[in-house]
Fold:
Amino acid sequence: MIILITGASHTGKTVLAQKLLEKYKYPYFSIDHLKMGLIRSGYTKLTPEDDAELEAYMWPIIREMMKTAIENKQNLVIEGGYIPFDWKKDFTEEYLDNIKFYCLVMSENYIKNHFDDIKKYASAVENRIDDDWCTMESVLEDNVQFSELAKKHNANIVLVDDKYEINID
Structure:
């Protein structure tokens, strides 16, 4: 089984992937590691700010990793903001039967009432060296964008509204 987790920055994608690892022993792959490996190694001239271009550049690699894991009957969680919402078009039914896709979205209400917590837990699994760019406005804007795309593509939305609780069963 492949579990894809996407969402705006600071929605808890990596934390959820870590919980799935701990509970189900499903390894996870952070797309941010691939991104930074490609950038730091010089295999691309793209920068961490080139989101759309990075998604297009990395998706063929991620897509084929998913196919390989399914063919090998391996479980894998892939988390990151670089998963295209039209990802299904790249897979036949036999692959699609083995893929679950979730988009984490924080509501405006949650962000406005819990922004201090969002910042506080930003390094819960990974150390964010520079998080100054993350503002309430950017988090609100990014979550609206992910929510709209998820709705447009009939994706499974995991909505964080009143309090941060994600059921992983």
The chain has a mean pLDDT of 91. The longest helix spans residues 51-71.
